[in-house]
Amino acid sequence: MGAAGYVTGSRVLIETEKTRVYVDAGLYQGPKYIEEKNFQSLETDPSKIDAIFITHAHIDHSGLLPLIVKKGFRGPIFCTPSTIKLLEILLPDAGRLQEEEYKFYSKKRIERYELTGPLFSEEDAHKALSFLKPLPFGEKLKFRDITAKFYWAGHIVGAAYLTLKTMGKTILISGDIGPRETIFHRQREKAPQADYVIMESTYGNRFHEKKDYETQMKKAIDTVTRKKGMLLIPSFAVGRTQLVLYVLYRLIKDKKVKPIQIFIDSPMAARATRVYLEHPNQIREDIIKGGFLEFMKSKAVQMIESVSESKNLNYFNGPGVIVSASGMCSGGRIMHHLFSRLWDRRNMILFSGYQANGTLGRIILEGASRVKIFNRELPIRCLVDNINAFSAHADQDGLTLWVKDLSEKMPEKIFLHHGEDEAREMLKTRLEEVIKSKIEIPRTEDVYYL
Asked: Within 10 Å of residue 107's Cβ, how many Cβ atoms?
């Protein structure tokens, strides 16, 4: 139902003789032509869906839940306990954003989709939260004629693969697959055997860089320490911020850099970090034993939540580090920090991952000399760099290894999902070299009888 040819909007309908369930219910995110898909009529009456399984909390896998509940869904929504904790943060925020965006919709757009209000509201999001039901990793759930089970995927806290057993067949849905070699999260579980596999292909045409991220981070901190400036790190609130904090912690602990004040200026990132602290079993064991949790609770890391505290950071001259959302500089508090510090040669921007086409992050990274923020044109005089080694997704090699781990019994068929067409085609070619399973590249609303 979604993400067939895109890396956003994941949603799959699985139907048996007695039961109809969604696996994931993601919002489309990105350029306007992709976000427009959120306003199209739902293909299935939500009141006729019996249950929903959510693999993890990222909005491209969960953000449609408030709309589906608004349209009449009344069944259980199953996900891992830590995913519930994150959804309690992310879904109301998504509702607030929808309300804010509606205020700026054009009359033409409102008329085209016959809108009487935002796609969904913060109130709708809170209502959706009331349908969440915890299903811990490794526990079996019998729901009508389906038996479900979650497995640790190593992507973000709470992220899972899902197996659904029904009518003598097993379907494995990957959700988002974490990398084989992890920096921060506990290594992903080996995927279980299945007759059919629906797997993501986000990085099906890419390979992660093998750069020394510690050296890059050390160089950045040394630079702002010497100049008594500020290091700005645009970062996604869930997963990426916590990984960045760990790298900073390790450099300080090993005395590779001088101690430096760290500010987490994102209410969502601060709350998500607390979820991580509540679920240390999903972080690498050596990190927990090494004292990372104690560091997170120390005065070395300040969680900035109020607007007034955030504004006060403008008067902190450094040296220091500000980690703030959003990761691609498409909104959030990072915009205010860029506005205040782009022009100052003492400062530095260190991006923590991929910057999509058209985003402010991409424009800055590609070497623009001036950018417009809050309708004011600003010169870019600070240093700019990017670390590309932090992805929470498996690359083509990692995805191939994930499938090869199923070697005891290869699936009859693999459906490549949640990926752009080029990525899906390249991953299909690679997989056909190593396995004999039939590989499908489905389109939106394609139907398969298993």
From this structure: 7
On the CB side of 216, how many CA atoms lie within 13 Å of its CA?
A: 21
- Euclidean distance between CA atoms 130 and 117, whole angstroms: 22
Question: What gap in Å lies between CA 21 and CA 50, rounded to an integer?
Answer: 6
In this structure, what are the phi and psi dihedrals at residue 178, rounded to the nearest 5 degrees? -75, 165
CA distance 88 to 332: 19
Q: List 439's β-bridge partners, or say none.
A: 414
Q: In this predicted model, what pLDDT tens digit does every residue of 382-420 receive, in sequence order?
A: 999 999 888 889 999 999 999 999 877 899 999 999 999
Distance CA 422, CA 137 (A): 33
What are the distances in angstroms from CA 149 to CA 244, 322, 357, 414? 31, 39, 37, 19
Which residue segments constitute the domains of the chain, with CATH numbers given?
4-206+412-420 (3.60.15.10), 213-386 (3.40.50.10890)
Global pTM exceeds 0.85 = yes
Report which of 395, 383, 439, 389 is spatially closest to residue 416, judged by C-alpha positions.
439
Whole-angstrom Cα distance, residue 120 to residue 141? Answer: 30
In whole angstroms, what is the distance from residue 423 CA to residue 416 CA?
9
Place of tokens 């409102």: 110
Specify the pLDDT at position 179. 92
| Amino acid occupying residue 142 | K
Cis peptide leading into 379, omega within 30 of 0?
no
* Cα(4)–Cα(438) distance, integer angstroms: 18
Q: Shortest CA distance to 198 belongs to which of 446, 382, 442?
A: 442
Instruction: Output DSSP code: residue 283.
Output: B
Those residues with Cβ within 8 angstroms of residue 389's Cβ, 6 or more apart along the chain or in another chain:
183, 208, 209, 210, 211, 213
The SS3 call for residue 111 is helix
Cβ-based neighbour number of residue 366 at 10 Å:
10
Instruction: Kindly report, residue by residue over 231-283, the tens digit of the pLDDT.
Output: 999 998 898 999 999 999 999 999 999 999 999 999 999 899 999 999 999 99
Q: Which residues, including other chains, have CB under 8 Å from residue 284's CB and lie 6 or more apart?
A: 182, 184, 185, 186, 187
Are the CB atoms for 37 and 70 separated by under 8 Å? no
Spatial distance between the Cα atoms of 72 and 17, rounded to a whole number of angstroms: 22
Task: Provide CB contacts within 8 A for 384, sequence distance 6+.
Answer: 348, 349, 351, 364, 365, 367
Q: Distance between CA atoms of 179 and 208, rounded to whole angstroms?
A: 9
Q: How far apart are CA 398 and CA 384, in angstroms?
A: 29
* Residue of 301, 302, 319 lying closest to 222 (CA atoms): 319
